[in-house]
Each structure stands twice: as structure tokens, then as C-alpha cells.
């Protein structure tokens, strides 16, 4: 091989560096540290302290591990008192940055006009304050329009019936061959006698399909009515099992056997549309209904008596321990006490029998063995011994060990030789005591530091008699356990200035080593006080001393194997762990092992379990392209199995290959149970799995590579014995296997619990709290996680401060998505932008449709496809939305599969999303938010779906508190409890995926390109030591203030400024360069972290608009079917107008087509268009809205809308049409279109705004500051010699060009802190527009002659002030807003030059 596989996995080498740092750590120490930190994570303990006896390498390992878990690690103390403390984060870890917000003049006018007409009433103000007294809970059946019997997804009512006799089918012979068939009588009789039965059968035994039929057949024989519910963990499994059981009984689905799931099933008519069908196939004759755990839970929310007509409930696959199944088992255990006719059957492939036997009161257990052949197990030490695997680091370590062994041999020989003489040289006890007394050593071993103030003599320079005496004392202590020899030893160290770390001349043994080896504790303390180096002690004693000193019992943390290792295996493992990082997958070892398998056997498929996508892709490329030992690719057939990889491998992998071809399967844990490949003979088990867990303390999802459980290891082993004897290679030691968890961590312990807590309020008795109810689960979740979930539900207004459900909470419980997404959808209904949010919410709930490419070389192409869908919106959510809409268009044109392949999309995921949309929309109709016709119908709730700023408002309302602040100075992102956050590689905002630059430079480029300082995100993940955010969208600060936080806030949420100043600072100035005191600013405090500073008058306007929004939301939530009032309409219109204006001011794009099915971009167009330019092909929806009849707030923006024709004297070839609008600040906003004309010129009639612009002196020309939102526009201008500005600035420039000899434009990119040069305006403004600009809001194009194309930092011109702009610095302006006076413009140009 040209390069090690591990190096290919991480080309940067950073992981390799960390691996080298961890090589010197014993495996037992790693296991003990991991166990300690895992216990800290699951306990109420706030910190753990590690002892002072750690080496520097071990400290680095613990620091890195603690950071990866989101803890704060810090070393305290010095010397022997230096301890390592690990603590959990409490409160915000980031410093409070100055969170400013400014409003455009137009936005202020709109808000003022609206509040003058509809001020905040006392009732609205009161209902938005935090309650001090507990209100009676909202009744379930009355008062809020919610019917308990209308719970979404309930199982249909029915009555037990005697089943019909099954008919003979072609499946009968297959059924009789299943292992479970031999236990039919045992199962039936046990179910008769017991109310709860536990059936454990290996995968493939037939328990899922046969147990319901056994019960049906028995009830038919005895003439007993029966009705069963059978749960499956996944929807597809419920459908597939129902169809299989119905086929085995010779029926069709919907007769005796049926299914019901929450997601609607569909049929596809290629050229027409999707036709939604019912989400169930049941009938009055249905006796066995297969469903998901969620459907049965929702049935139980209507009351336990809903199961009064059910005779049996079968809960299958409970070994997966998903959260819903655990919650279902808890509720079923309580239901059994109230429904005496109900029987419960639990079925599993591999289960913690004792846990569930105890949980259900000593229920009987039936064991069913599967059909499998013998599988031989080989662990890491066996692999190293049998294959002879050695790498360079192992060989180097072996040489070092041989050197140490040689020293130990010399010590043994020397001790044997010196035994007699050392006893003769021993001093008498009285003499030893005298010497010790002369040394003036205190009893506790503490020695004054002044003794060692002078430099110690070099060991090599010691006189021969000193070397002989020190060697004699060390050997006497070690060999004869002579404690009196320490007296002479201390005398030589203190009087003769011999180093306390003196090493024996032949054995390198130090005094501390021999004292520790013989257990002389007092002398150990004295040596440590003299400064003995603790890192030089024996490694065999080091592990136990760490744990004992720190009061950690290693025997309880690290379990040893039942049989002792042989010396050879022990040495091999030591060499391997010192040369490789056993916390990562050793792909080089896998390649070596795979080659040995291919050389020693002729056939048999090889299944390799890997933790994730990166390892799969690297190993696949290495087999096919890099490793010369596998150069004959025709001999191998490589398959990849990963949930997010688009591939046909999942079907092809089940087929047997042609003779002479070896099948190699690279898979994640999905192949443990979900997929069974019968011809697998060899399994290579990396022992790793990429597991997602939730850190409730930091609100971060952790994606970590962790060791699997013993049960998973046995499951992986069992994959090799389906059709023939097999071999399983475990790439971990027996010691590691014995210290693995017995079973996987239940999902209930590692996921956010907001949705389950919401369900709990409907499942638990009235007087039972959420923590109390969840504590009765088979394995109760951590109290901290439950508290965090309840707090999050309070933050989104689903619960009040007494943990009672609010009106919003009851509606969220009805929706089939998690609470925050449910709130997003309901806010979208109120904001009337439902359709885009439906798509985004369903995509986030199910999983994004983008798939990972099977080849590493296609990664960049996949990310470019994703970015092309963003339409320059700086939004991952826009990519999800437009990808779905483009797929819908491709479906109508009949080329959806090709479209998915070219754009790396999953057809199955997109089909699932469209089904979820249909179901979610149906539920919104059922609870009254969407009406069939009239006000509130589907057209009405989509009036603002084309306005992306309004859609983002709904996103903020649902995503909160997932908010990120951009720190442009340090080039990083900051969150509530994270000081430094990065973009996830899959985010379109991450620059590293599209440019070949380093990750650090990519992060800086990504930060600099953002138009705003605020982002929302879907999920924050922590991998290794860094946190990253995915699913990001750039938003304005006003959107965060208006739609973030709770509806009800305390009285102090709006804080008036402590100091009032007469001179107000303009909101519209460039905040990058303004330096002024913030004492005069008011503050709006959203939560513990979000606190915004803004002028008092602006703060009052924003806060009252926020109150009006939440009053509107609460009214619509309380009565969704009630007609809209004029106040409601005006509130929404004001919000839409303000949001649109602020988005435009921030330079954010307004893509069109988001509220409807867009025209897809063809592959030919995609190759020509830049990913950020696709939005320029569509007209602005904001401009289109102006063509309609304006609403009252919009009239404020559109005063004086009639155009005025201006004809300028002396310019016979031009005519200018000016349309004036209300100004942004003191100036007027004008739009200008230049047209060609024939004929003579006429007189010019200028409006007041034009006269104002032309009144400036022109003897030295006119100079304007031109601001651009991005660097791309500057580059286009320099290349093509053109420029385009907003319609607001066209009038200024046109007037200046007509009356002045020269118009100079000084260019600057917003946020760059630089001037990019200057040029001369050389033509008037034309009607055409440039399609390449990064904004669709620009006007016509005019020519520019660039004079200077160099960057100039602002600090070179900070001494220049502009008297025409309140004496502010010349760089403080908006695009074309400020003109420079004659005495300043020359100096500015000179500075730029």
C-alpha cells in the first residue's frame, strides 16, 4: 500500500497526533476513566476529582475525553497536590456580548402607525405577564375545543370475535420448519396461565409472525373471542409483518389481519399526482392489528378503558429499548391492574431477562433457539498471535521492552550476587535512627525547600563511593526489605546532594520505585516531599495507585477476564495498545485480516462492521484502488450498508455472488438485526458504533464513537453462522469484552424527552408528576434530563410554571411531530405561510433527504448540489424546501428517479415526507386550524408563503432557543453554553466543503460571508472536542427579538436606560465603526442569555409589537376556528411589512417560488449557474406584492407612488422617469429608469427630493460612498466595468451625473472594514439589469471606470469626518446614502490612493 489507511481517514494528522499521545496509557486506565465519566454523566453529581498521581499523558487523555463529553476540565494545585477536576457546566459559559438591534426608518413608521391605531390593551398586557397564582387546568373535553376521543392516530374501536379457521397455503411447510413452531403448545398454554409472558427468541426463529397465529388458532379451536394489538418499532415493519401474516393465512390485509400506522400509505400515479390513502387497513372483522408503539400510546391517552375490548397485546422487538416502547411498557403495566381481561406478551431477540422479569413480577420466560451453525470467536490477542500482525510502532515498542527486560535481568542477577554482602553492609537500627535524627526530617516527611535550593550534582559526576553506597542502599531495601537502609539513603541525598531520583547504575531502579515495591508508606511520603518524580515509578503499580489515591475502587470499575492471559498475549496487547489508538478503528489491521481471510479460504462472504460513513468509504476505496494486494477487483464484490447512503446494495447484497467472486460487505450496526445475509461466513467486528446521545445540561447532541455492548457483540457474531460454520474476529481484547455493557443503553436515557414529557401529561394520573411517572420506567431516565425537557416545554409555552399543559401544549400533543416543530407549524398557520413550513417541519422530523455519496470523490459534488438549492439565502432549510419542491416538479414530469440520482436525494425519504405532510395537514384540519373553505382555508393560510422573511419568523418561533450569535472579531459562533461553535460540514454555510482551503480558513470565510450576526439551527452536535451546528439559517436580530422566547415575560423584560442623553444616535448608521456609550440604550431581555440593546423609543416600539404578536398567537391558539378580526389582520400586516423591510436592509435574499412548486433547474443550467445566483432568475415577491392593493401599513411605505416624468434641459438624448417614495432617513427614496428618446429636450420639473440632491456644490465633482453586501459584486464591477445600486439611490446618482463634470464612487463591502477602491461614473443608469449581482433588489446598470483597485483599512481614514452626516466618520454610511463634501472628498480619495 502506498499509504496507511489510518492516514487516509484523517489526512490532517490531528487524530494521529492525539493517538500518539494516548499510546502510553494502559487499557485498564482508559476503561476506569471512561466508567467514571459515564457515571458522572448519568448521576446528579456535579464534579469528579482525579488524583495527583496522574502522568501528563493521562491528564491530556482525560482533558480530551472530558471536553468531548461537554465537561469543563481544570488542573489545580502543584506537585503532589495537583489534582484534575472535571465539572459540569452551569449557566452560560460565554460572556455577554453587546447584542444590538437597529430599525429602518420605514419599519419605525409602520410600527408607529400600527400602534397608534391598535395600541396594546391592558388585557393583552396582563395576559402576557407571568402568573403568580396557579390557574385551574384546562379541562380535557371542554373549554378549548379539544375532544379527548379525537386524539390523533388512535386505534379503531372493535369487539372481540371468534376467528375463522385458517386455510391451507403454500407457506405451511415453511411455517412448520421454523424453530418457534416446536414451542407452539408451550406458548399457548403459558399465555393461558399467565397475564404476562416473556418470549426470547433469536433472529429468524419466526416469533414475530407465528405467535399471533398460534393464539388465533387456539381461540378458534376453543371458540373464544379474541382481539389483539401487535406493536412493531417501525412503520414499515408493521406493514410488512401484517402482509406476511395475512398471506400465510390465505387472506388479504384488512380482513382478520390489519395494520394501522400514523403515516399514511400511498400509491403512485406517475403522470398525475399522489393519491393519499388511509393510514390503516382494518375492518370490523379485523382481530389482529399491527401498529407502532406510538399509535398504541396515543390510544391509551384517551384512557385505559380503550383496551377493555382487547384480549392480547403483543409488544415485539423490545430488546431495541426505544423510548416509546419503554413508555408503553410502563403504561401497560398500570393498565393490567385496571383491565383484568388483558394479557401481555413481550417478544425479543436478545433481552435483559432479569430486568423485565422483575419489572413484571416474576413473569414466565420462554427461550427459543434459532437455527445457526457454530461460530468460532477470535479476540484481538488471538488475531495478533495467529496472523502475525505487526506494525512499525509495535516493533519499536518491542525493542524498548527488550531493553527493560535486560535491565530487569541484570537486577535479578545483581540481587542474587549482592544478597550476602548487602546484609553485611547493613547498619544497626540505633545508628539508623541517629542518622535520621541528624537529618532533622519531620515525622510527616515534610522537608524545607531550602535544602534543595542549590543545584543537584549530575549523576555521572558522582564519586565512585557515592554510586556504590546508593546502589547498596537501593538493593538492600528491595532485596532484604531493610527499612533501616533508608537512613543512609536520606543522609546521602540531603548531605551529599545526590538526586532523589537517582537510578541504580545497572537496573535504573529509583528509591521511590523500591519503596513503593516493598510498601514502605512513610518512606514514600518522605521521598515525595523531597521532590521524587512520580512519573518514574513502576507502571504495574501505577494503575492501582491512581485509583487508590483518588479513592476510586478499580476492582469495581475494571473487570478482569475469567482466565488469565498467557505471557505472550499480554505482551502482544501491550505492544498493540502502545502503538495504536484503541479508541479508533484500526483500518490497517482490518485490511491485514481481510487479506489473510482471502488467502486462507476460497469462498464465504465477509461482513465488516464499522462505526460510520467515513470508515466505510475509506475502506472501500482502499480495497478497490489503493491496496495492491486487492488489485484484481473482479474477484471481489463490495457492498456498503448505511442508513443515509443511497444505494441498491440493500437488495443486491442478499443475492449470492457468482463462483470465484468474494462478497465483502461494509456495514454499520444496521446489519446486526435489520438485514440478514445468509451466506456470511466471516465477520470482522470493529467493536465500535457511532451513537447519538443527548447532553441535557448543554442542550447538545453528541455523536460519539463508543464501544458496543456484549449483546451487540453476540448479535454480530451470530451473523456468521446462518448457512455454515463461521468465524468472528473481534478487534478488541477479552478484557475489553468483559468490561463492555451487558446491553445497549436504552434510548430513554440518551434522547431529549420533550415529546415524552408531553405524552406523560396525558398518560399519567392527574396527581402524578412527570418525574414521578417516568421514574417507574424499566430504566428511569436521569432526573437532569427530565428537568431539562420540562424546562424546554415551558420555554415554548407548552407548559406553565406549575407544569400544567397550556392550550398550546394540548394542541402540540395532538400533532404527530415533536413539540418545537409543532409550534413552528402552528405559528406558520397564524403567519399564513403554512406550505413551506409543512415541508421543512416534516423533513426535520423524519430526516433530511440528502444522502451521502458512496464514493469519497463525490462528496464535493454532493455538497454543491445541496448548495444549489439554497438560492443565495444562507439557509439550510431553504435547501430542504427547494429540493423537495424540485423533486415534486420532477415527479410531475416523470423523471424523479434520475433527478434523485443526480442530486444525491433519497426517493424513499421524499415519498415519506409527502405522506407526513398530508397527515399533518389532515390533523390541522381536524383540530380546526385549517378550514375547508372561507377564511382560514388552505389558500388563506398560505397568503405569505412566498415571503421568505415571514417563513423564517415561523422557523425562529419553533427553533428557539437554538440561536447562535456570530462573533466576527474572533471568527467563531457563540451559543448559550458554548464559547466556540463551528458549522457542521453538511451545512451549506460551511465554506470548507466547496473550496480547497483549511478548516480554519473555511470557518473564517464562512463567518465573513454572513450578512447578519444571528443564526438559528436545528441541532448542535459535539464530536471529539468541538461543537458544530447543522440546519442553519441566517436571520435578522429583529426576528429573534419578536419571535424568540416565551410569550409571558416578567415585568423587567423591558429595562429603561439608566442615563438619558439629549442627543440620540441614529439607528441607521454602520454599527461596525460606531463607538459610543451604551448607557442611554434600553434593554429587552428575552432570556438568561439573549439581551438586546437599542434606543429607548425603538425598544418600546419593538417590545409592544412583540406583545401584539403573542396576543394574536394566543387568541388563535385558544380559538383557531374563530374568524379573524381587524386587529388580527392589522397585526399580521404590520409584522409582514416590518420583517420584509428589515430583511432587505440586511441584504438577505428573497427567493421566489418557495410557496409553490418551482421550475426545476436542469443539469445544463446548473453547470452554468453559480450556486448562489439561482435566485436572480425570479422576480422579487416583495416587488410583486406592491402590484396588489396595499394594506394600511403598506401605504406608509408607498406614499406618493405615482411616477413623475422628468426631462432635463440640454440633454437631448435622454429622458428620465422618476418615481418618488417616502425616504429612509432624511432623504427621499426614488426609483429611476433611463430610456432612449428621439426629439428635442424639454424643461425639467424636479420633485423636492431631486432639488435637494442637486443643490450640493459641483465645482469639484460629486463623491459618494457605495456599500456592497458582498465581495462578489465588487469583483464583477472590476471585471466588467459596471455597477448597479438600489432604486433608492438611482435618483441621487442620476442628478449628480447630469449636473456635475465627474461623479466619483468610493466602494466598500459591508463588514469588511476596508475601502475596496474608487472609480468614476461614466454613463447614466440604463433599464437593463445584471443577472449576476448577488441581490435581486438592485436597479439598472451603469458604467464605471475603476481608477484604484486596492484595499484600504478604515483606520487610515478614521481622522476624516463628514459634516454632511452629523460629523461622523466618512466610512459610516449605507449604500449611497451619504455624500462627501468638497473639502473631505479629496482627502478621502487621497487616503484610498
From TrEMBL:
Q: Which reaction does this enzyme catalyse, per its entry?
A: ATP + H2O = ADP + phosphate + H(+)
Q: Output the SUPFAM superfamilies linked to this UniProt entry.
A: Ankyrin repeat, P-loop containing nucleoside triphosphate hydrolases, R3H domain
| ANK repeat residues | 507-539
**Domain Helicase C-terminal spans what residues?**
589-764
- Which intervals hold domain R3H? 22-90
Keywords of this protein's UniProt record, alphabetized?
ANK repeat, ATP-binding, Helicase, Hydrolase, Nucleotide-binding
InterPro entries per the record? Ankyrin_rpt, Ankyrin_rpt-contain_sf, DEAD-box_helicase_OB_fold, DEAD/DEAH_box_helicase_dom, HA2_WH, Helicase-assoc_dom, Helicase_ATP-bd, Helicase_C-like
| Keyword Iron-sulfur among UniProt keywords | no
Give its E.C. classification number.
3.6.4.13
Q: Where is this region: Disordered?
A: 1057-1076, 1146-1172
**UniProt domain Helicase ATP-binding: residue ranges:** 188-369
Q: Please report the name of this protein according to its UniProt entry.
A: RNA helicase
Annotated membrane-spanning segments are: none
- Answer yes or no on keyword DNA damage: no
Q: Which GO terms describe its molecular function?
A: ATP binding; hydrolase activity; RNA binding; RNA helicase activity
Query: Of which family is this protein a member?
Result: Belongs to the DEAD box helicase family. DEAH subfamily.
Q: Where is the YTH domain?
A: 1261-1392
Source organism of this protein record: Scleropages formosus
Amino acid at each position: 500500500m502506498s499509504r496507511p489507511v489510518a492516514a487516509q481517514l484523517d489526512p490532517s494528522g490531528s487524530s494521529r497526533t492525539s493517538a500518539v499521545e494516548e499510546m502510553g496509557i494502559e487499557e485498564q486506565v482508559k476503561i476506569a476513566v471512561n466508567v467514571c465519566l459515564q457515571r458522572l454523566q448519568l448521576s446528579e453529581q456535579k464534579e469528579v476529582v482525579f488524583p495527583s498521581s496522574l502522568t501528563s499523558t493521562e491528564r491530556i487523555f482525560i482533558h480530551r475525553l472530558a471536553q468531548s463529553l461537554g465537561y469543563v476540565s481544570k488542573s489545580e494545585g502543584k506537585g503532589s497536590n495537583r489534582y484534575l477536576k472535571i465539572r459540569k457546566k452551569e449557566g452560560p459559559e460565554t460572556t455577554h456580548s453587546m447584542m444590538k438591534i437597529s430599525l429602518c426608518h420605514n419599519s419605525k413608521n409602520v410600527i408607529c402607525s400600527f400602534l397608534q391605531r391598535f395600541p396594546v390593551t391592558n388585557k393583552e398586557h396582563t395576559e402576557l405577564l407571568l402568573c403568580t397564582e396557579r390557574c385551574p387546568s384546562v379541562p380535557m373535553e371542554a373549554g378549548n375545543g379539544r375532544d379527548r376521543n379525537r386524539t390523533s392516530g388512535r386505534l379503531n374501536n372493535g369487539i372481540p370475535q371468534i376467528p375463522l379457521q385458517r386455510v391451507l397455503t403454500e407457506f405451511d411447510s415453511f411455517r412448520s420448519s421454523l424453530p418457534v413452531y416446536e414451542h407452539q403448545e408451550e406458548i399457548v398454554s403459558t399465555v393461558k396461565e399467565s397475564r404476562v409472558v416473556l418470549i426470547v427468541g433469536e433472529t429468524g426463529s419466526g416469533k414475530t409472525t407465528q405467535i399471533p397465529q398460534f393464539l388465533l388458532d387456539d381461540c378458534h379451536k376453543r371458540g373464544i373471542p379474541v382481539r389483539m394489538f401487535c406493536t412493531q418499532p417501525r412503520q414499515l415493519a408493521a406493514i410488512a409483518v401484517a402482509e406476511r401474516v395475512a398471506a400465510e393465512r390465505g387472506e388479504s390485509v384488512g380482513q382478520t389481519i390489519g395494520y394501522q400506522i400514523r403515516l399514511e400509505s400511498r400509491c403512485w400515479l406517475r403522470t398525475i399526482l399522489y393519491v393519499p390513502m388511509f393510514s390503516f387497513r382494518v375492518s370490523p372483522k379485523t382481530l389482529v392489528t399491527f401498529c407502532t408503539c406510538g399509535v398504541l400510546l396515543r390510544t391509551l391517552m384517551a384512557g385505559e378503558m380503550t383496551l377493555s375490548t382487547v384480549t392480547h397485546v403483543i409488544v415485539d422487538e423490545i430488546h431495541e429499548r426505544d423510548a416509546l416502547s419503554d413508555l408503553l411498557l410502563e403504561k401497560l403495566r398500570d393498565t393490567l391492574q385496571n383491565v383484568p381481561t388483558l394479557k401481555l406478551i413481550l417478544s425479543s431477540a436478545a433481552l435483559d431477562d432479569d430486568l423485565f422479569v422483575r419489572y413484571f413480577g416474576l413473569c414466565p420466560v420462554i427461550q427459543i433457539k434459532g437455527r445457526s451453525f457454530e461460530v468460532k470467536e477470535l479476540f484481538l490477542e488471538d488475531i495478533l498471535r495467529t496472523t502475525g500482525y505487526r506494525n512499525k510502532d509495535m516493533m519499536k515498542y518491542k525493542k524498548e521492552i527488550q531493553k527493560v527486560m535486560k535491565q530487569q535481568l541484570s537486577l535479578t542477577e545483581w540481587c542474587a550476587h549482592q544478597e550476602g554482602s548487602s546484609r553485611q553492609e547493613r547498619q544497626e537500627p540505633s545508628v539508623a535512627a541517629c542518622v535520621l535524627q541528624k537529618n532533622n526530617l519531620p515525622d510527616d516527611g515534610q522537608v524545607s525547600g531550602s535544602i534543595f535550593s542549590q543545584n543537584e550534582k549530575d549523576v555521572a559526576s558522582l564519586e565512585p563511593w557515592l554510586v556504590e553506597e546508593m546502589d547498596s542502599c537501593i538493593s538492600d531495601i528491595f532485596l532484604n526489605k531493610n527499612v533501616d537502609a533508608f537512613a543512609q539513603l536520606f543522609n546521602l541525598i540531603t548531605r551529599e546532594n545526590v538526586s532523589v531520583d537517582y537510578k541504580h547504575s545497572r537496573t535504573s531502579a529509583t528509591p521511590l520505585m523500591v519503596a513503593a515495591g516493598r510498601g514502605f508508606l512513610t518512606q514514600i511520603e518522605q521521598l515525595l516531599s523531597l521532590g521524587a518524580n512520580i512519573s518514574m515509578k513502576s507502571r504495574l503499580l501505577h494503575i492501582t495507585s491512581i485509583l487508590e489515591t483518588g479513592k476510586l475502587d478499580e476492582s469495581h470499575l475494571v473487570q478482569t477476564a475469567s482466565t488469565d492471559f498467557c505471557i505472550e498475549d499480554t505482551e502482544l496487547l501491550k505492544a498493540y495498545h502502545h502503538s495504536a489508538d484503541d479508541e479508533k478503528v484500526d483500518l490497517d489491521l482490518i485490511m491485514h485480516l481481510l487479506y489473510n481471510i482471502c488467502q486462507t479460504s476460497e469462498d464465504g462472504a465477509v461482513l465488516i462492521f464499522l462505526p460510520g460513513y467515513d470508515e466505510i468509504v475509506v475502506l472501500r476505496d482502499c480495497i478497490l484502488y489503493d491496496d495492491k494486494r486487492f488489485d484484481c477487483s473482479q474477484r471481489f464484490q463490495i457492498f456498503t450498508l448505511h442508513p443515509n447512503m443511497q444505494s441498491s446494495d440493500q437488495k443486491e447484497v442478499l443475492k449470492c455472488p457468482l463462483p470465484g467472486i468474494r462478497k465483502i460487505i461494509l456495514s454499520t450496526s444496521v446489519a446486526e438485526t435489520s438485514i440478514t445475509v445468509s451466506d456470511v461466513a466471516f465477520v470482522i467486528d470493529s467493536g465500535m458504533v457511532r451513537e447519538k446521545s443527548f447532553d441535557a445540561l448543554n442542550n447538545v447532541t453528541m455523536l460519539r464513537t463508543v464501544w458496543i455492548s456484549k449483546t451487540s457483540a453476540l448479535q454480530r457474531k451470530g451473523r456468521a453462522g446462518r448457512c455454515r460454520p463461521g468465524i468472528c474476529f473481534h478487534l478488541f481484547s477479552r478484557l475489553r469484552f468483559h468490561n463492555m455493557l451487558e446491553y445497549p443503553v436504552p434510548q430513554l436515557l440518551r434522547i431529549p424527552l420533550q415529546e415524552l414529557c408531553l405524552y406523560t401529561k396525558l398518560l399519567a394520573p392527574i396527581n402524578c408528576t412527570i418525574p414521578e411517572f417516568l421514574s417507574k420506567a424499566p430504566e428511569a431516565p436521569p432526573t437532569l434530563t427530565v428537568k431539562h425537557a420540562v424546562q424546554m416545554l415551558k420555554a415554548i409555552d407548552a407548559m406553565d410554571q406549575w407544569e400544567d399543559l397550556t392550550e398550546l401544549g394540548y394542541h402540540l400533543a395532538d400533532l404527530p411531530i415533536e413539540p418545537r416543530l409543532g409550534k413552528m407549524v402552528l405559528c406558520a398557520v397564524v403567519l399564513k405561510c403554512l406550505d413551506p413550513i409543512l415541508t421543512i417541519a416534516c423533513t426535520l422530523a423524519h430526516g433530511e433527504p440528502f444522502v451521502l455519496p458512496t464514493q469519497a470523490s463525490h462528496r464535493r459534488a454532493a455538497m454543491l448540489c445541496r448548495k444549489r438549492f439554497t438560492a443565495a439565502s444562507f439557509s439550510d432549510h431553504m435547501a430542504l424546501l427547494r429540493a423537495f419542491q424540485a423533486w415534486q416538479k420532477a415527479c410531475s414530469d416523470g423523471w424523479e428517479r434520475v433527478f434523485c440520482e443526480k442530486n444525491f436525494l433519497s426517493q424513499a425519504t421524499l415519498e415519506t415526507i409527502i405522506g407526513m405532510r398530508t397527515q399533518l395537514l389532515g390533523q390541522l384540519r381536524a383540530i380546526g386550524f385549517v378550514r375547508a373553505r372561507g377564511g382560514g382555508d388552505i389558500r388563506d393560510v398560505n397568503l405569505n408563503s412566498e415571503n421568505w422573511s415571514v417563513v423564517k419568523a415561523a422557523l425562529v418561533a419553533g427553533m428557539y432557543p437554538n440561536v447562535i450569535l456570530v462573533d466576527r472579531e474572533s471568527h467563531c459562533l457563540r451559543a448559550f453554553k458554548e464559547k466556540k461553535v463551528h458549522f457542521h460540514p453538511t451545512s451549506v454555510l460551511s465554506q470548507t466543503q466547496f473550496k480547497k482551503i483549511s478548516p480554519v480558513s473555511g470557518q473564517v470565510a464562512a463567518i465573513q460571508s454572513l450578512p447578519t450576526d444571528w443564526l438559528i439551527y436545528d441541532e448542535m452536535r459535539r464530536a471529539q472536542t468541538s461543537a458544530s451546528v447543522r440546519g442553519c439559517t441566517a436571520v435578522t436580530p429583529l426576528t429573534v427579538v419578536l419571535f424568540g422566547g416565551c410569550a409571558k415575560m416578567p415585568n423587567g423584560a423591558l429595562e429603561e436606560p439608566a442615563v438619558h442623553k439629549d442627543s440620540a444616535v441614529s439607528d441607521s448608521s454602520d454599527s461596525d465603526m460606531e463607538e459610543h456609550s451604551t448607557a442611554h440604550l434600553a434593554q429587552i431581555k428575552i432570556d438568561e442569555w439573549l439581551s438586546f440593546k437599542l434606543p429607548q423609543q425603538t425598544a418600546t416600539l419593538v417590545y409592544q409589537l412583540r406583545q401584539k404578536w403573542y396576543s394574536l398567537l394566543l387568541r388563535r391558539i385558544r380559538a383557531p376556528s374563530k374568524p379573524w378580526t381587524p386587529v388580527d389582520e392589522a397585526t399580521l400586516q404590520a409584522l409582514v411589512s416590518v420583517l420584509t423591510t428589515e430583511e432587505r436592509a440586511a441584504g438577505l435574499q428573497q427567493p421566489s417560488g418557495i410557496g409553490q412548486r418551482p421550475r426545476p433547474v436542469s443539469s445544463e443550467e446548473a453547470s452554468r449557474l453559480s450556486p448562489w445566483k439561482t435566485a436572480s432568475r425570479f422576480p422579487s415577491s416583495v416587488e410583486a406584492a406592491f402590484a396588489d392593493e396595499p394594506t394600511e401599513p403598506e401605504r406608509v411605505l408607498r406614499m406618493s407612488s405615482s411616477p413623475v416624468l422628468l426631462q432635463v434641459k440640454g440633454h437631448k438624448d435622454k429622458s428620465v422617469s422618476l418615481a418618488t417614495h417616502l425616504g429612509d432617513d432624511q432623504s427621499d427614496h426614488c426609483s429611476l429608469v433611463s430610456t432612449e428618446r428621439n426629439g428635442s429636450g424639454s424643461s425639467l420639473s424636479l420633485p423636492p427630493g431631486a432639488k435637494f440632491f442637486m443643490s450640493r456644490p459641483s465645482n469639484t465633482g460629486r463623491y459618494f460612498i457605495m456599500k456592497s453586501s458582498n465581495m462578489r459584486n465588487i469583483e464583477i464591477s472590476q471585471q466588467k466595468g459596471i455597477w448597479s445600486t438600489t432604486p433608492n439611490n438611482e435618483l441621487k446618482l442620476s442628478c449628480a451625473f447630469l449636473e456635475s463634470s465627474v461623479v466619483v464612487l468610493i466602494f466598500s463591502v459591508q463588514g469588511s472594514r476596508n475601502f475596496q477602491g474608487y472609480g468614476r461614473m461614466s454613463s447614466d443608469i440604463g433599464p437593463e439589469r445584471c443577472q449576476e449581482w448577488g441581490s435581486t433588489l438592485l436597479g439598472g446598470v451603469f458604467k464605471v471606470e475603476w481608477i484604484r483597485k486596492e484595499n484600504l483599512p478604515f483606520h487610515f481614514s478614521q481622522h476624516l469626518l463628514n459634516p454632511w452626516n452629523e460629523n461622523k466618520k466618512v466610512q459610516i454610511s449605507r449604500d449611497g446614502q451619504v455624500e462627501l463634501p468638497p473639502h473631505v472628498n479629496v482627502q478621502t480619495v487621497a487616503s484610498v490612493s
